Amino acid sequence: MASSENVDSVGYIKHHLQNLQVCKTDDGWMWNNELADQGITNACENAGFWTFNVDSLFFAFILGALFCFSFWRVAKNAKIDNPGRWQSMVEMIVEFVDKSVKDTFHGRNPLIAPLALTIFVWVILMNMMDWVPVDLLPWVAEQTNVHVLGNEPHTSYLKFLPTADVNITFSLSIGVFLMILFYSIKVKGIGGFLGELTLHPFSSKNKFVQVLLIPVNLLMETIGLVAKPISLGLRLFGNLYAAELLFILIAILFSTGVGGFIGGFISYMGWAIFHILVIPLQAFIFMMLTIVYLSQAHEDH
Amino acid sequence: MNVNATLIINMIFFAAFVWFCMKFVWPHIMSAIKERQDKIAEGLAASERSQKDLELAQEKAAELLREAKQQSAEIVDSAKKRHAEIVDSAKDDARSEAEKIKNGAMAEIEQEVNRAREQLRSKVATLAVAGAEKVIERNIDEAANNDLFEKLVKEL
């Protein structure tokens, strides 16, 4: 009994952490739940790079579009004399981001502030998905899958928290990384950028020693450079993945009797309340580090 | 959990959202904020300016009032002085006029007295002559009475 319950729990967790995917296999493009009736629970398991996490992309796009649309509506109808509540809130966020950018970034680049605003609001919105009860949207997906599409219930996958998908967080951090490279080269020139990578932190007046030090510098600086997007992406992913996992684990408690239900209810609520802090904090850290990295990219030594 | 092509698609989304935000959201909101800040600053400056103007006007009004008071006091003073002068000159005029009238009256009186005296004298002389005639008629001792007449005449 205990072991079967364990298997159930593991299956429940695995099911919740499985993205709905479309992938390119040897048999052509297919959904990852397409071959479930042949006993293959995930058709995309070995599909390689050309796999799309449809659910992550869907929610990421919907939330990003929500951000763009709502802010665009405010921007279009912005009143000077008598701003409404919604406009006041948007202006508060915009001014907060603007102040953060101005405090840290001293160059002149009209891209940085909108970039920071987009990251901040989009990441907050995506993070906020972890307040949605873990079984609500998967249940809707299952009902749709069974009653509308006529599939087996256990083949409906949905992972609705985009920032718990490493692809989404890395797409943001790699986007920032590409901008770091672009502006480093644009501001300092290729020579200046390579010099920064090879002549620091160890330098010597002796030419011969300097040449010996170049590989060491290059190694250290490259690691430092590459660590930026990796830490940026993994920090956000780790926090939200842990958040989602814990919500799933707590959700398992609900089915273990009255005590489990009460304990689960309290811990679910506590974990959700804790995320009032985590959600904006992670978005803020991501935004702040983006600004700092881009500010460093603009600094010419 | 593997890195896959999702990353590329989402990077395209990311770029699109950032571009949209830079093009259609950020400049409009910032310009609205800037415009409002300018307006508020302008309003504050205007209120400060008008406050200063008010103070200035109040000062000016007080000065005008003070001046007016001073002027009115001067006018009252000079009027009083003029009044006193007029009264004095009127008194002087009256006095000199009275003097003149009195003098004229005195002269007239004296004249009248002299004339009366003259008349009386002449009347007394005739009366005395008439009396004397009567006396003479009764008593012709002219010599005896003559010095009596003389005395009488002199007494007048």
Automatic annotation (TrEMBL), chain A:
Q: Which domain of life is it from?
A: Bacteria
* Topological category with respect to the lipid bilayer: Multi-pass membrane protein
Q: What keywords are assigned to this protein?
A: ATP synthesis, Cell membrane, CF(0), Hydrogen ion transport, Ion transport, Membrane, Transmembrane, Transmembrane helix, Transport
User: Which stretches are transmembrane?
Assistant: 57-75, 111-129, 166-185, 245-266, 272-294
Compartment(s) of residence: Cell membrane; Membrane
Q: Pfam families under this entry?
A: ATP-synt_A
Q: State the Gene3D superfamilies in the record.
A: ATP synthase, F0 complex, subunit A
Give the record's family classification: Belongs to the ATPase A chain family.
Q: What does this protein do?
A: Key component of the proton channel; it plays a direct role in the translocation of protons across the membrane.
**What protein name applies here?**
ATP synthase subunit a
- Naturally occurring in which organism (per UniProt): Kangiella aquimarina
TrEMBL record, chain B:
Q: Which domain of life is it from?
A: Bacteria
Q: Give the signal peptide range.
A: none
Per the database entry, which stretches of residues form a coiled coil?
47-74, 99-126
The cellular location(s) given in this protein's UniProt record come to: Cell membrane; Endomembrane system
Task: Report the principal subcellular site.
Answer: membrane
Question: Could you confirm whether the keyword Secreted appears in this record?
Answer: no
Alphabetical UniProt keywords: ATP synthesis, Cell membrane, CF(0), Coiled coil, Hydrogen ion transport, Ion transport, Membrane, Transmembrane, Transmembrane helix, Transport
| InterPro entries xref list | ATP_synth_B-like_membr_sf, ATP_synth_b/b'su_bac/chlpt, ATP_synth_F0_bsu_bac, ATP_synthase_B_chain
Q: Tell me the function of this protein.
A: F(1)F(0) ATP synthase produces ATP from ADP in the presence of a proton or sodium gradient. F-type ATPases consist of two structural domains, F(1) containing the extramembraneous catalytic core and F(0) containing the membrane proton channel, linked together by a central stalk and a peripheral stalk. During catalysis, ATP synthesis in the catalytic domain of F(1) is coupled via a rotary mechanism of the central stalk subunits to proton translocation.
Q: How does it assemble?
A: F-type ATPases have 2 components, F(1) - the catalytic core - and F(0) - the membrane proton channel. F(1) has five subunits: alpha(3), beta(3), gamma(1), delta(1), epsilon(1). F(0) has three main subunits: a(1), b(2) and c(10-14). The alpha and beta chains form an alternating ring which encloses part of the gamma chain. F(1) is attached to F(0) by a central stalk formed by the gamma and epsilon chains, while a peripheral stalk is formed by the delta and b chains.
By sequence similarity, the record places it as follows: Belongs to the ATPase B chain family.
- According to UniProt, the name of this protein is ATP synthase subunit b
Q: What is the source species?
A: Kangiella aquimarina
